[in-house]
Backbone:
């Protein structure tokens, strides 16, 4: 009985702490293809902190921001780093959109998928002093604005720009879209009154909402967000109405995923899949999801690959409809 119990205990311990055929031997770089302060940067630094706090690897984690060319610089670096298992990249839907908009000679299949960590919502934000009480008010003002109302987001021909195009189509109006290098920069411009609205992710504007500089009008989602803890103005993320409920029939969510370069080994990929699965189960990651009002949606393996294929096809149509495809 004692020998049997010891054998079972050893098996369970091995299952809880797998021994990998490969482990990192030097510092691991997480490339963020945007400036510091944006949602992608916040995600990377949350991951960095969780890994280091729980000692999920013996090697240090270094976050490197490469925002040039709308994220293309960071994406190309990972493509050119084929076989280097000490580099990772945090990605969003720009994984498909940047190549589509620029004819950049890369595809997500050039990379090695690790995991989708979550999906992210987008919110229609305005300056706290703006007169608009809902999306209908803002769209009505946009129809009569001359020159066109300024609305900001991250990069050109990317997620924010796509949402603004959908708003124009839904409201039969025209905006002046102002691209920024990050959501943090867009939030700063909105709080300073230099633009009249933005389409930031929740995490990108929550600080200015708490500080009384900006406020949300609606979330671009079919369903309200689920987080009920109060954030600012006595409201929670769950209290923010959906844009369709306010007459603006535009919805959009994007992936938050992790990839490594192509041409790595199955053992190297397996190490990182296990690592990010563990990250997704840490209190720090769950707190981050709640703070940023992200949609929990961890996927790896075939489930992640299936999502990527479907999401790429969806974005090809959206980009084509918007006229954002490179010719």
Residues:
């Amino acid at each position: 009985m004692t020998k049997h119990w010891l054998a079972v205990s050893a098996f369970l311990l091995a299952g809880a702490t797998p021994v990998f055929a490969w482990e990192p031997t030097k510092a691991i770089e997480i490339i963020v293809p945007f400036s510091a302060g944006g949602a992608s940067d916040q995600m990377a630094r949350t991951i960095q902190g969780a890994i280091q706090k729980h000692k999920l690897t013996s090697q240090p984690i270094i976050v490197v921001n490469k925002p040039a060319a709308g994220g293309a610089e960071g994406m190309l670096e990972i493509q050119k780093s084929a076989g280097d298992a000490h580099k990772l990249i945090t990605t969003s839907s720009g994984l498909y959109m940047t190549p589509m908009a620029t004819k950049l000679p890369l595809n997500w299949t050039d990379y090695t998928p690790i995991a989708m960590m979550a999906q992210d919502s987008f919110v229609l934000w305005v300056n706290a002093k703006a007169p608009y009480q809902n999306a209908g008010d803002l769209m009505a003002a946009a129809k009569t604005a001359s020159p066109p109302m300024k609305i900001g987001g991250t990069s050109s021909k990317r997620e924010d720009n796509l949402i603004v195009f959908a708003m124009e189509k839904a409201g039969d109006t025209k905006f002046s879209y102002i691209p920024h290098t990050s959501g943090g920069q867009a939030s700063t411009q909105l709080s300073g009154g230099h633009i009249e609205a933005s389409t930031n992710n929740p995490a990108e504007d929550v600080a200015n909402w708490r500080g009384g500089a900006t406020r949300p009008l609606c979330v671009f989602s079919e369903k309200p967000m689920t987080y009920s803890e109060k954030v600012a103005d006595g409201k929670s993320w769950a209290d923010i109405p959906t844009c369709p409920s306010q007459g603006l029939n535009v919805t959009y969510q994007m992936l938050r995923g992790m990839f490594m370069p192509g041409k790595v080994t199955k053992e190297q990929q397996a190490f990182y899949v296990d690592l990010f699965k563990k990250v997704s189960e840490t209190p720090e990651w769950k707190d981050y999801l709640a703070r940023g009002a992200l949609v929990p949606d961890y996927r790896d393996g075939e489930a992640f690959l299936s999502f990527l294929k479907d999401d790429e096809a969806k974005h090809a149509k959206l980009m084509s409809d918007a006229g954002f495809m490179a010719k």
